[in-house]
Structures
1.
Amino acid sequence: MAEEKSFPMTADGKAKLEQELEDLRLVRRPEVINRIKIARSYGDLSENSEYESAKDEQAFVEGRISQIETMLQYAVIIDNEDVAADEVSMGREITFQELPDEEPESYTIVGESESDPLSGKISNESPMAKGLLGHKVGDTVEIEIPNGSMKVKILSVK
């Protein structure tokens, strides 16, 4: 039997997925079903672009529902209770400086499903996060990134 993948995430990330799932089930799914019903009333389905569009959206909505259900079923909520306060771990905001003298940057390391780099949330699967995880404030770390490597100093962990 194949081993199921776990989905590490913060409690906030899990709550957002649960909210999205509820919205998909209670709002989007009924809207799409209604669109399909209306499009069917137009007659010939072979050349009915409204029907095709609604069916495509239905496939997307049902696929996303299935994806979220799986992620929630195998969710592992990150608990930093047993991790030192100055250690980089998921769910924490990390401030680091690329050496020798770049401006400090801050990111929160989150599960893959919560990742949003433009909002300062990077996936625990990203090269940056993988390189930082487990290190402590004051450590200088060499991180392998797609176009080479970079050296950073960890300034703070919150």
2.
Amino acid sequence: MWTFSILTCLCLSFSQLIYCQEITTSMVEFVWDLPLSEYQRYGWYGSSPEFITNHEGNKQSWRLRGKINYYDSTFSLHLCYEALIGIEAQYKFYLANHKSNKYSKGLNSSLFTSGTCFGDEGFMEYHTMTDKENGYIFDKEIIKIGVQIVLGDPVFSGRTNLEYVEGLGESLRLQWQNKSFADLTLVTAQAEWAAHKVILASQSSVFSELLANSTDEHPVNYINVSDAECGEVESMLEFIYSGSVSSPTNLINLVYCAHHFNIAGLKSYCENRLRFGITCDNSLERLILSHDYDLNQLKTSIMAYIVKNKCPTLKGESLKTLITHPALLSEIGSFFTEMVHW
């Protein structure tokens, strides 16, 4: 059953120091003040500040995510959710207009679980949004993207509840810190790390296969990871046990770890981190990495950065390097061809 209360509005912008505000009503509205200067024209992908609701005693974290699709000149818009407990919700996107009525599209209903995003791949044509004559650009070159959300019933899955999940996460972190009941050792020529077979096997299909043949008569108590092209074993294990990495020394090496041991969450974590700090100097290395390891969002961000900043990545010695990666070079060519139509 849906419940309604007074509409609550919250406007946030990237310039604010405080990005998070808690809303306790069951019908909320969130407005993302997006400066035109914040996004790149081709292949831009970005997220709004966090927006927190507190419904039925549970906290939910929401973000709007936008993307400019270079292939059809449209603006995609999605609503993303993070929480320990799922929720049923109805939502409607809109674009504010200072000349006439706001532009909105139909009401949608979805079951949100942590990490899910729902939305509209072609919310509006990019040129329509950015043409000042249409009224969508406000003072200080701001576009106001909004979403109205009606919060429904929380959705529990089996015995999962807030206290249980939080307690389990804390237990795993303590296991990592204290090495209690460790029954496996990862070994390189330089160091050793204590770990737990069941935890590694649950997070990595590669570890699961390596440990599948372990028996009482022939136990697998040591795994040599020297040949894994993984120079970040410590950070990899920290992610497996805690879901994050406090201070990875080399994200590219961490990508190798995620790929070699097939840890999807770690791969996604590295991709998101690598999308920040792109420069002309590192664009070639990261572009090849993104292609070799299927980091498609990173690849799009790098190509857009190269165009916007006129990087010499496609010239001289860099071009000679790209020629040795013909599939990537072909994809870059397609990207530039699509941009010509903008």
